[in-house]
Amino acid sequence: MALPVAEWQGRTARLWAALDPALRERLAAASLHDAAPTDKKPEAASWYREQGNREFKRGQYQAALRLYSKAASHELPGSPEVSVCFANRSAALLHLGHFEVCLEDIARAESHGYPDRLLPKVLLRKAECLLCLERFQDAQDILRVLESKITLDGVMTTHLTRLKKLSQLKVKLGEKERCPEPAGERGGIQREPEIWEENSSISGASSSLSLSFDAERGRHLVASQDIVPGQSLLKEEAFVSVLCPGESLPVQDGDTAWDTRATNADLYCHHCLRQLLASVPCQGCSYAKYCSQGCAEMAWQQYHRTECSLGALLLTLGVFCHVALRTVLLAGFAEVSRLVAWSHHRDKNLQNPEAKCKPLSEAPAAGAGSRGIPGCGSNGWYQSSYQALFHLLPHTEQHSPEHKFLCTLSVVALCKQLQAAGLEAAVLNQESSQQWSKPKACEKTSDELSPELKTVAEAMLRHVLQLQWPGDGAVVDKKPVRLATAFFPVLSLLNHSCCPNTSVSFSGTAATVRASQPISSGQEVLHCYGPHWCRMRAAERQQLLSQYFFECHCQACLEELESGVKSVVSIRNSFCCPKCQAQMKGEEDTLCCSNEACATSASRDHLSGRLQDLQQQIKKALDLLRVGKADQAIKMLLKCQMDAGTFLSPEHLLMGEMEDHLAQVYATLGKWQEAARHLKKSIEIVEIHHGPSSVETGHELFKLAQILFNGFAVSEALSTIQRAEGILSVHFGPQSAQIQELQEMKACLSQLPRNILQRT
């Protein structure tokens, strides 16, 4: 959720429609804390732990893992119960084969005062992990401790099961010591580092780029030399990022206030955005979760000590307000106030006719550098800094008055709460970052914000408005789903094209830009903000881009709009005649068959309704797969496929998605040939829509390589691996995880005996 919740938006809309002298009083009386509570609730922890135990007994270890993490996030720090959560979670991790992480959770349980009477089973689990990790001496030491503990315990019958397991472990350990693994090379394929020469004036950029500025395109990047596909052009860590909480799901059955389903907030580290396996909860709130103690401590020192008690309000006001607050916290009040003061000076000068004639280089150092480009330092460098971020365009004049009013009220509400909660000193960097200390609420607060908080509010409003512009990074995972909202000052230099010449990938909070096609020296380097020509018609793209306050004049848009030729996207994703399967045409509510010999017509609404019903049926089939009912999922998907063939074009993207889903189901059953057959059909449709060298085709080929590898189709697997490697290395580079896996599969297949390779 980027903007405030609907209830808050509705309230501000009503206020806007009835602006009256009581505006401030009504805003002060608005309740914003009830929408998404983030305080710790021990009763919720107990409920989640019980649900986790239930899933664990059913053998659903992944579900149990998630529920134990939710329980830990609600336990009070230092309570014995939190140690039980970590110990329970370690059991799920052991069953899932995550031995290193299991050991970390066991250590957490021990450090949080795990009950001594329960310690033997945890030590046994620890020994088993060490054995699986081939740390034999450590496993032997733990077994000795365990033996002595069980001996000291007077009630031996309590530990009969554990004694049996212990003896089995000792036998295993003896076998391992007698038959050590043959020495060999460990680790993955050695990866050569990429050749990279840093730009001398643009931080994180390649030396093959240069920064330019003109009135039409603003700041933009240009190739200073010829660039080849796959060449790395830009590497940047986000100046600030905030995890999007994900969709707030309704509670099922109405029997509990606690939802067992996972959102982004449960699945990714709130600091570095890495995927979570066993989260480390914040000690102050139930919302923030981290991948390690290091991330938790760093987040607390940099911003979370201020944000922790504001969790409910921040979730209510939306990610944009959250990003704005975290931005000023990371920048520091001194830098924020300096740049806000500079903006006042600039605005004052712009009203002065004489000042308008002065060159940009005469502006204060906070503005344009010696090169006259906004955001550059006085030395002409453009860095990934708060100064560069501050100069991203807020487009204040283009935003509607209603939208600016909503943003202003939201920012003021947040600053008022900072003042009321006693957090002003922390925001102004006047308070030490004492670990896990709670702020003291002010006994009495003024109706007016302090001058310092007014400065903070002004900067925050600027940043909220900037985030309507593509200067914010939509950090995503492999699927096109927004994972976080972030500011990338250098990445923001790239202008949009619906047919870009670059590919952008994200890893945690870092963005990497690579050339996706040859770029000649002097050519502008372009990035797609979302509306790609392969996915939307020009009219739809222009409508979507209008929120960014510009009209796209890229080659793809000009060709489609000026020629008047129907978009290939419309043709490929069209409805077909239920009788003769020819394409259905028409711009009105009634569509007619394009085959003159067939006079069939159909309502657009009727066909759209069938499409929606089909999508719902596909969703139900995937739900069946998730609960292990693969055979039923196949029957439903095949039925959907037959139904789709009666009214959708054979090239429709949904036809390809169904082939992909069928491949997934057959793969779960180990039917590799069937899986490969369906995936090849999916690849054909993906290539038609996105092109043979697109990242989408690369992902599909990667899946096909895995299926062929598992199905032992050696020759075909090797050729597919080679093709997938060629495409994905352009978009993600030779050091990406997918390339590494492809190389490992290739090495494994290449080492097979020659007679097997010839047969396959």
From TrEMBL:
GO terms for cellular component: cytoplasm; nucleus. PROSITE patterns: SET, ZF_MYND_1, ZF_MYND_2. One of its GO terms (biological process) is methylation. Residues 604-631 form a coiled coil. Its main location: cytoplasm. Residues 269-308 form the MYND-type domain. It comes from the Eukaryota. It catalyses: L-lysyl-[protein] + S-adenosyl-L-methionine = N(6)-methyl-L-lysyl-[protein] + S-adenosyl-L-homocysteine + H(+). Residues 207-530 form the SET domain. Keywords: Coiled coil, Cytoplasm, Metal-binding, Methyltransferase, Nucleus, S-adenosyl-L-methionine, Transferase, Zinc, Zinc-finger. Protein-lysine N-methyltransferase. Monomethylates PRMT5, modulating its transcriptional activity. May also act as a histone methyltransferase. Plays a critical role in cardiac development. Acts as a key epigenetic regulator of gene expression during cardiac development via its dual activities as a methyltransferase and negative regulator of HDAC1. This is Protein-lysine N-methyltransferase SMYD4. It comes from Lamprotornis superbus.
